[in-house]
Amino acid sequence: MTHLPYLAAAYGITIIAIGGLSVHSWTKLKTVQKKLAQIQNNKRS
Amino acid sequence: MKRKTKRLWIVLGAMICFALAITLILSAFSNNLVYFKAPSQLINHPTAKGTTIRLGGMVVANSLHYSHHDQTPTAEFKVTDGQAAIEVHYTGILPDLFREGQSVIAIGSLDQNNIFTANEVLAKHDETYMPKEVAEALQKSGKWDPKFGPPPDADTWDHMVKPKQ
Amino acid sequence: MTKTSVPPSAKQSGFNIHRFANPGTFLRFESKIQPWVIAFGILFVSIGIVWGLFFSPADWQQGDSVRIMYIHVPMAILASGGYFGLALCALCSLIWKHPLADLAAEAIGPIGAVITALCLITGSLWGKPMWGTWWVWDARLTSVLVLFFLYLGHITLLHAFDDQQKGYKAAAILALVGVFDLPIIKFSVNWWHTLHQPSTFSITHAPAMSLSMMWPLIFCFIGFALGFIALVCIQLRAAILERQVRHLLLNE
Asked: Which stretches of this protein does UniProt put in the Cytoplasmic compartment (chain B) (predicted)?
């Protein structure tokens, strides 16, 4: 059928959205973990 | 414990009240929430001629033909809900899924000759998902002719088609 | 130093879930399951999507457009499921004053909003070629759009107040009020005439879907569900750690 552009758009938007959300969540976690480690290091030193 | 139980009852009580309120509102407006009217509803409770309404039903088998008034091809077909049928005229491109035996929604108005002139025709698809082979097997076995409506219940499919590997 | 105080009623209660009232316990549990949830999530989604896109049959009347179902249906289920999660968090927060409930609600909200948006967008991309329109105001589509706005409202309320506790409370109330949209979404196609077709799956009879399409759908759903859980856990972990950071900075 000639409706492939709709199919491609649907899968494309999903991958981009989920991918973006995952990257955002992961970097948020990494940033906080780094900050926590930094503070705990400062307290020790 | 006592304060927690009290909070529990307050929350539950509020939610029950809200649920009742919503049920009452929905049942009161039920008529206005329907997206389309069926042909028998339209015939029994006719709206003023010329008002735009949505008509939903199944395209009657062997009722589709094209006429050529004013050089623009007009599709003419009947839409039924099993109890009554209404003739629909539509000038324009019909959706891909349109065929006899398919459920459709026509948006337009009924004129004085009880002919529904549609500005837009949407095709519904039913909740059945099956590959071509299953559809063809059902048709070959004589159990189903798509022109006359939706396929038989899924429970019966396995008896007509060999299970795929 | 990393423990936050647990209300005494939680310790006395025999209800198991209060083990997780201690953020430390949750963090330890979550760190154990996280790699598995992520790995299996990616595995199931990959299998499901490749199967659905390339190895499942085209529908007899919809052709290849039916393959949008493998995304649209899991998103729809997770959208409602996510909001139900918000409602559960709200109950835990308002009635049992569970310390993690508000943070969990804060984590679920944005993810649920994205999933609901994807459900609506993939639905439109499916509807345009099949029905002939991007959108109709029938009961199913409208109630899912309402769900999207409920998510947005929830996120907004959480950040609307100077006093964070007021924000948590307001959001929890919205979650409990909005949860009544969920049965409307589910039963809209049965109660009223809609353009959206009725349910393919029912508890009482065989699904109106061939197995060759149902299996990739199941894999996709499991994959997306695991992914949803993984993302919520990651966000919740980040929120708990952020709270610890703030504690430490305040105690300097």
From this structure: 1-7
